[in-house]
Amino acid sequence: NAGVTQTPKFRVLKTGQSMTLLCAQDMNHEYMYWYRQDPGMGLRLIHYSVGEGTTAKGEVPDGYNVSRLKKQNFLLGLESAAPSQTSVYFCASSYSGTGDLGEQFFGPGTRLTVL
Amino acid sequence: QQQVKQSPQSLIVQKGGISIINCAYENTAFDYFPWYQQFPGKGPALLIAIRPDVSEKKEGRFTISFNKSAKQFSLHIMDSQPGDSATYFCAGTSNQGGKLIFGQGTELSVKP
Predict the structure, then answer these.
(1) Buried (b) or exposed (e) across A27-62, using 16+ Cβ within 10 A?
(2) Tell me: the pLDDT tens digits for B2-47?
(3) What is the dihedral of CA B21, A44, A27, A70, to 10 degrees?
(4) Does residue A101 register a pLDDT over 90?
(5) What are the Cα distances from residue B36, in Å, to A18, A29, A61, A88, B106?
(6) Which one of A35, A103, B8, B43 has the largest count of C-beta atoms within 10 Å of its C-beta?
(7) Which chain A residue shows the shortest CA-CA distance from B39?
(8) Closest residue in chain B to residue A107, using alpha carbons only
């Protein structure tokens, strides 16, 4: 099992460019999440999904869009990148939303720099 | 609104010492409190978790102490080792949507 994988691992964008981050999981998890990690800010939830075809906003959704067309994939899009979106992005998945079955499994992260 | 506050931001401990990280939460609907461990360049991974109906949970050298009335919980790492050097995140979640709310993180360095 590969667990949670993220593509790409690194990316440099210019302000105003767009891109899509891909997250894939092979654990048949219902829940998937996108976080951003910034120094001193911890992990902040951008968007999440409780099942195929569903998405919901997290703490910091502005400037991002997501789609969950297939159960195993969760895409994070930046339509017009801004320097404030320079961060490390983590995808995670879980079987349930909370409790012992809510353990979130994280991918290795994508380091994004917006110039 | 930061619903989980974590301290200290960084911590240096000598090998064999006790590392203590504290967290306080605001949302009384939280019913599950996990701790995640993150090594440099890696994603976080679940370390240990506790429910509020239990005051303490121990797994090996790692112990969570929970004080429901004070809305505080802490992670104790006994006999700290250099291999424990990592960033630790506390978190809280409820069954209302299942979102994890993370603390700001504590960077632990264990000196040999």
Answers:
(1) eebbbbbbbbbeeeebbbbbbbbbeeeebeebbbbe
(2) 589 999 999 999 999 999 999 999 988 888 999 999 999 999 999 9
(3) 170
(4) no
(5) 31, 19, 23, 17, 11
(6) A35
(7) A108
(8) B43
pLDDT for B5: 95
pLDDT per residue over A52-64, tens digit each? 999 999 999 999 9
A81–chain B nearest CA distance, Å: 23
CA distance, residue A43 to nearest chain B CA (Å): 6
Contacts of A47-51 spanning 24+ positions with Cβ under 8 A: A47/A76, A48/B99, A49/A74, A50/A97, A50/B98
Chain B: give the shortest CA distance to residue A97, in Å: 4
To which residue do tokens 């979106």 refer? A85
Residue type, B46: L
